[in-house]
Design brief:
Largest sheet: 8 strands, antiparallel
CATH architecture of the largest domain: Sandwich
CATH class of the largest domain: Mainly Beta
CATH topology of the largest domain: Jelly Rolls
Distance between the termini: 75 Å
Mean pLDDT: 85
Radius of gyration: 33 Å
Shape: globular
Amino acid sequence: MTTKIRNQRNAMRSVATIATLVITTFLLSACGGESTETLPNTASSSDSISYTGPTPASDDVQNFKLSVWDNLVQDNRCGSCHGTGGQSPTFVDSENINTAYSQANSVVSLSNPSQSLMVTKVAGGHNCWTSSDAVCADILTTYISNWAGGTSNSAKTIELSAPAIKDPGNTVPFPTDPEDFETYVYKPLLEKYCSDCHGDSGQTPYIASSNIETAYEQSKSRINLATPENSRFVVRLAFDAHNCWSADCQSDAAEMESAILALSAEQELEPVDADLVTSKALVLDNDGLLANAGGRFEDNIIALYEFKAGDGQTAFDTSGVSPALNLTLSGNVDWVGGWGVDMGPAVQTDQGGTVPAGKAQGSTADSRKLHTLLTGTGEYAIEAWVAPGNITQEDARIVTYSGSASTRNMTLSQSLQRYEVLHRSSTSDENTPFATQDGDKLLQATLQHVVVNYSLGTGRQIFVNGQQSGDIDPDDAGLLSEWDNSFALVLGNETDGKSAWQGAIRMVAIHDRALTPSQIQANFEVGVGQKFFLLFSVSELVGLNDSFIVFEVSQFDSFSYRFTSPFFISLDETVEPSNIPLQGMRLGINGKEATVGQAWANLDLVLDSEFYEPGTGQPLSRLGTIIALENGPESDEFFLTFDRLGSEEYSRTEPVLPQTASPADLPASSSIGLKTFDEINESMARMTGVSKTQAAVTSTFNTVKQQLPTIENIDGFLSSHQMAVTQMAIQYCDALISDGQARADFFPGFNFSAPPATAFEHGGKSLITDRLLERFVGVNLSTQPTALEVETEVGDLIAKLSDCGVDGCAEDRTETIVKASCAAVLGSATTLVQ
């Protein structure tokens, strides 16, 4: 028996809903025969085919035509093989849409589009029209979902089915030290043949990095020690002919498989403790039941990025709306396990080069569909699942449709703990942000669901994790008629690469309609990433047929798994549990219990018909947990252990807690502190009398703020801090000296118009040094230079700068020397240390 868990139907948008449709009256002949008339074709391919056959026999046939037939009938997709007179099934028959409809029903599943034969065939490599079979499968799933969304069958269904039953076995763990990997795989193959593309300055994954630790971590998920022939390294060579180093890819694949076999042979098997009470075992990729069954509202999506590819330099648009707005990854970008990309900062390579900050950018030609469709509706929604890398970055672009750092149509950006929206309309300035409030701190360095809404009725809105921020758009809602169609869609940066954002992007969707609050909440609750149901068999332990403990499981990131929402169920709907005790449930991975993340270790309940609902089972806990990834989702083997389940018990002896170690006696911290960035700015403003809101000062401060000290510990002072302080001091002194009245008040009696040879003579030098000492240097402090030492240093600087050589001094030389003297004292330790 199987049990159905029903989710809301994910009715995705068809291409037809974004085109201007011709309203066609269906004519039936008086004698009941079929009429033939031209129907609108909504496919956006340049090779579109005009249909002139019989009219659709029902609304469902029309839905099929608009959602599936129009998108697949071209010869470069399915028309050349499965069209009129072609091979069976002829689901894109161009002469009779009703025949095509009948044929299509034999290869699709409207209740579970992703499992349609049409989809699985393409996913297996059959006639994909893009460079990725998975992308073609996703697009086909979208088309079929669009069709299903227009039928009465509006609920998606996931059928729980029993996996292969197997005991936890001896597993092959990855060694903690990369020495064996280096010996058998890295040195003879990866470093030799893959470093040109996958080295430090190449593309991800960095499997041939000169840093062996990096190469090892990047390679683990692509090596299967249990079944080396299934390793990604082997499959890419054998089936994808990816960068073969000889003329024979099969030979290269065999060489790679032999290297992984040798690595595997060096490892000791990890058996399961025979005393443990265990469930049966499962592997995520092999035994998991895909749980991404919809529930999301996606009717109006025109660009969608789920980052399922896992490698390569392209993030595919799987919205199904042509043209596909695929994004090219460049710079420091890495794929995240479980779907996603990680945008990193610019980094120096071991060879002295630089890898620029990461970004993903579409072409201006493909991005034009955003202009066409969004200006057509006059509204939009940007939906993203993001995990900011920190809460200190500013003017960092997450999603932007722009032409430069100062020219845009729309942008979602981060500034500290604020989400900001920049937007061009007939009533708003494109560079004036609408943002969440600083005090609310809505932006956190964790996975968040963020939606930006814009419509004429509401203006701009920001939603974080399903909830509206409460901020009101200060601008009236306007038209999008001023948008520029030559801009490009970019993720993680600006088009010029100068507004880098650091963090992970797990999903981005552009909608051509604003989302309602209920739709946003629904999409938040669905979550993000690839999710599975794992059914751990416990039939032998509870004495009931087809009994399982089920978890929802996902790969949380490249280093961990997420387990949530456990429940007990029997797939035999005639069975109900009765007074079965369950205590102390734990997760096992690769032959042993996980060392951390045991959220259900204290579970103590009874499986009983009082709590059990046939078809949906009995919930066990609302808790979830994260456990470390070891070998990867292709080979990590999971199982459950129990202190007690049914009549089986395990006598657990808790380990003795170690003695608390005596804390190390650290050296005394310095009593001398360092001013932080905001304190430095405030001090310089007060000392010079120049307002910190002065335009040039504000611009310099915003530019170097991240380079200024952020903590008061003087041991953390860096040379880069001093460079930023110097720039601030120069800017403040320039503002002071350039203002005739301000400098006269600050340095009374000094003649700025005189040349250096006379300006600093007869007490002129003292007019400068005395005031700098008075305003910038404290008194009666034992931890600073004496006034004489400062005066001597500044005097020497003035003397050196006053010597202009044989060419003589420029007219403003005296003013320049005073600026330099001012900056030397203002930017010194006398103002930094506290």
